[in-house]
C-alpha cells in the first residue's frame, strides 16, 4: 500500500481546505527531481530537472486542480469550467470525473495537442472548440462563470495557485535547500506566480535561508511579458504556452522582480533542440513547452546571465506523450523490413 497521501494531506497546514471529506485527489505531486547527467556537466551547472510530467494526468496542472476541485466540492459546486491550451482541460476533466462534477472546457480549435484532447474527451468533459485563441476562450469562460453557478478552475482561481505552490516545497525538501535559480516556462503565468508563493512561504516557515532567482521563459512568437505588450496572434510549436495576454502577467512580473530574476524568450528552433537533447541525452520525454525552460537556460548560460557552478532547477511541466505528433514529425521514418533474421540484420546494419 502506498503511504503517499496526495498534496492536500501532505501539506495540510499550507493549504486552505477545511473539510477532509471534500478532498478530491489522484495522489498528485511527489514528482522526481532528477539530477541532470548531460546538460548539467555540459553547461557547467549543478542542474536538476523537476519532472512534473509524472503527475497523474501528465502535467503540473494536477497540483492546482486537486485543491481547486476539492474547494469547489467543499463549497457545494456541481460543475467546473476552464479555458485551456490542453493540460488544464485534461486535469480538470480527470478531477471532475473523480469528484463527480460536470466539466465544461473551451479550447482553441486545432491548436490542442492530441493527447490532451483525448484525455479531456475520455473523462467525459463537454469540450467546445472555439474559432479563436486561448485568450478569447478565457474571456468567454470568465463571463460564463459569473453568469452561471459554475466554478472557474483556470489559474485565476486562487486555489489553483495554492496547490501549484507545493512544487516549491517539494524542491526544497528534495534538495535540502532552495536552488539558486529556478527556470520555468511561462504561458498564462499562473505557475511562476505559484512557485514564488511557495518559495516565499517555505522560506518564512522553515527558515530556509534563501529563495531562488526566477527565470521565466516564453516562446518568441508568444512572448507578451518579455516584449511588454499583448501579442494579438500568438504562434509557437509549444502550443501549451501559445498565449498572448497572460492572466497573471502582473503577478509574474512582480515575482521575477522580487527574486531578482529575468524573463527571456526562445525560438521554436531552440525549443526543439532542447526537446531533443532532453529525450536523447537525459532519457526524458517532455512536451515542447516544457523544453522551453531548458532552451531558456541554455541561452542564459551562453549570455552569461547564469554563472558556472550555479545550483539550478528546471521545471519540466508536461509529459512528451501529450503531443505525439511533434515527436513523430521530428523523428526519421520507421524502417520497414521482411520477417526474417537475415533481413533484420541487414536493415540494422549489424
Ligand atoms: N507548460 C505546460 C506543459 C503547460 O501546459 C502550461 C500551461 C505552461 C507550461 C505554462 O504555465 O500558464 O501557468 O504559465 N498550460 C495552460 C493550459 C495554459 O491551459 O493547460 P502557466
UniProtKB/TrEMBL annotation:
- Residue stretches making up the Tryptophan synthase beta chain-like PALP domain: 25-318
**Which source organism?**
Candidatus Hakubella thermalkaliphila
Q: Which GO terms describe its biological process?
A: isoleucine biosynthetic process; L-serine catabolic process; L-threonine catabolic process; threonine biosynthetic process
TM ranges: none
Q: Where does pyridoxal 5'-phosphate bind?
A: 87, 187-191, 317
Question: What reaction is this protein's catalytic activity?
Answer: O-phospho-L-homoserine + H2O = L-threonine + phosphate
Superkingdom in the source lineage? Bacteria
What EC designation does it have? 4.2.3.1
Q: In which pathway does it act?
A: Amino-acid biosynthesis; L-threonine biosynthesis; L-threonine from L-aspartate: step 5/5
List the cofactors. pyridoxal 5'-phosphate
- Enzyme category, top tier: lyase
Q: What does this protein do?
A: Catalyzes the gamma-elimination of phosphate from L-phosphohomoserine and the beta-addition of water to produce L-threonine.
For this UniProt record, the keywords arranged alphabetically read as follows: Amino-acid biosynthesis, Lyase, Pyridoxal phosphate, Threonine biosynthesis
Q: Is Signal there in the keyword field?
A: no
InterPro entries linked to this entry: Ser/Thr_Dehydratase (IPR050147), Ser/Thr_deHydtase_PyrdxlP-BS (IPR000634), Thr_synthase-like (IPR004450), Thr_Synthase_bac/arc (IPR026260), TrpB-like_PALP (IPR001926), TrpB-like_PALP_sf (IPR036052)
Report the family membership. Belongs to the threonine synthase family.
Per the record, residues carrying N6-(pyridoxal phosphate)lysine are 61
Q: Show the Pfam families listed in the entry.
A: PALP (PF00291)
Tell me, what is one Gene Ontology molecular-function annotation carried by this entry?
threonine deaminase activity
Stated name of the protein:
Threonine synthase
Species lineage, top-down? Answer: Bacteria, Bacillati, Actinomycetota, Actinomycetota incertae sedis, Candidatus Hakubellales
Amino acid at each position: 500500500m502506498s503511504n503517499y497521501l496526495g498534496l492536500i494531506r501532505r501539506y495540510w497546514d499550507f493549504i486552505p481546505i477545511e473539510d477532509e471529506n471534500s478532498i478530491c485527489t489522484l495522489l498528485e505531486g511527489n514528482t522526481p527531481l532528477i539530477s541532470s547527467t548531460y546538460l548539467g556537466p555540459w553547461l557547467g551547472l549543478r542542474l536538476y530537472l523537476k519532472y512534473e510530467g509524472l503527475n497523474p494526468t501528465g502535467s503540473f496542472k494536477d497540483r492546482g486542480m486537486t485543491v481547486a476541485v476539492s474547494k469547489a466540492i467543499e463549497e457545494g459546486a456541481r460543475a467546473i469550467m476552464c479555458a485551456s491550451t490542453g493540460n488544464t482541460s485534461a486535469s480538470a476533466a480527470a478531477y471532475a470525473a473523480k469528484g463527480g462534477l460536470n466539466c465544461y472546457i473551451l479550447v482553441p480549435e486545432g491548436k490542442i495537442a492530441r493527447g490532451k484532447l483525448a484525455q479531456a474527451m475520455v473523462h467525459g468533459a463537454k469540450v467546445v472548440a472555439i474559432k479563436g485563441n486561448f485568450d478569447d476562450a478565457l474571456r468567454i469562460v470568465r463571463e460564463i462563470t459569473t453568469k452561471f453557478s459554475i466554478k472557474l478552475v483556470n489559474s485565476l482561481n486562487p486555489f489553483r495557485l495554492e496547490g501549484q505552490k507545493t512544487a516549491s516545497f517539494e524542491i526544497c525538501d528534495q534538495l535540502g535547500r532552495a536552488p539558486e535559480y529556478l527556470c520555468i516556462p511561462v504561458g498564462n503565468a499562473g505557475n511562476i506566480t505559484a512557485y514564488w508563493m511557495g518559495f516565499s512561504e517555505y522560506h518564512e516557515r522553515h527558515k530556509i535561508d534563501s529563495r531562488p532567482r526566477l527565470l521565466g521563459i516564453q516562446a518568441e512568437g508568444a512572448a507578451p511579458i518579455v516584449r511588454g505588450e499583448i501579442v494579438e496572434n500568438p504562434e509557437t510549436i509549444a502550443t501549451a504556452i501559445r498565449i498572448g495576454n497572460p492572466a497573471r502577467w502582473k503577478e509574474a512580473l512582480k515575482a521575477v522582480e522580487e527574486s531578482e530574476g529575468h524573463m527571456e524568450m526562445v525560438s521554436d528552433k531552440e525549443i526543439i533542440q532542447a526537446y531533443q537533447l532532453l529525450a536523447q541525452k537525459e532519457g526524458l520525454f517532455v512536451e515542447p513547452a516544457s523544453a522551453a525552460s531548458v532552451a531558456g537556460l541554455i541561452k542564459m548560460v551562453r549570455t552569461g546571465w547564469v554563472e558556472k557552478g550555479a545550483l539550478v532547477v528546471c521545471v519540466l511541466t508536461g509529459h512528451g506523450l501529450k503531443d505525439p505528433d511533434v515527436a513523430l514529425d521530428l523523428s526519421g521514418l520507421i524502417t520497414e523490413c521482411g520477417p526474417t533474421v537475415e533481413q533484420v540484420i541487414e536493415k540494422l546494419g549489424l
